[in-house]
């Protein structure tokens, strides 16, 4: 709690005043900032108690500004379990955004399509998830000081915001799938057998993030919605070696559609 208060105070002193919406940008999804009136930005390594982004595709800045006449805080780059952080570290920024006053949280990620009806370059609204990280951001002593220990996860994603995204997608001819996201540790990608396993247990997409943030958002009773950019197709019967550059290219291809969805959602909140 002391860390949360110190970090929040630091950001408030630097002008992060009364944001309404928090946004977490995933791999290769930074161009939403082009649609933003940036007022303040701070590198993660300057923020007290903040982790530092170590992934080359994640910039590592917390940015405050205006999108669609709403005050927003944007994480340009997130943290991952595979970087060696605890899930408490990974989700610390969600607690900070909530403490700053954020009332809604929008999350994006890049993920692989398990469902063979989904194609790379398309988007998926996350309706539910499977936590395969082997850990929880709520599994620590004293968690009940921050909220209920046994958090209900029967509907972890906000349906109202989800409906707005689906309506916006339809109006803009965006192919927005709906499905289940599985979060794995990584950083290695999956084997053919692992992709088959993920399909059997009901996953439509797989990635290495998001679920911890969603759990903490629910712990804080912070309404949250999440969209995956599908960057590769994970068909175990036709699996090709991973090409990180192609994954980044697919993220860039789908990014304008994700920006449209998020901007229209922000406008309507």
TrEMBL record:
InterPro entries: Nucleoside_phosphorylase_d, Nucleoside_phosphorylase_sf, Pur_Nuc_Pase_Ino/Guo-sp, Purine_phosphorylase. Pathway: Purine metabolism; purine nucleoside salvage. Pfam families: PNP_UDP_1. The purine nucleoside phosphorylases catalyze the phosphorolytic breakdown of the N-glycosidic bond in the beta-(deoxy)ribonucleoside molecules, with the formation of the corresponding free purine bases and pentose-1-phosphate. It comes from the Bacteria. Its EC number is 2.4.2.1. Residues 20-267 form the Nucleoside phosphorylase domain. Keywords: Glycosyltransferase, Transferase. One of its GO terms (molecular function) is purine-nucleoside phosphorylase activity. The keyword Nucleotidyltransferase does not apply. Belongs to the PNP/MTAP phosphorylase family. One of its GO terms (biological process) is nucleoside metabolic process. The keyword Transferase applies. One of its GO terms (cellular component) is cytoplasm. This is Purine nucleoside phosphorylase.
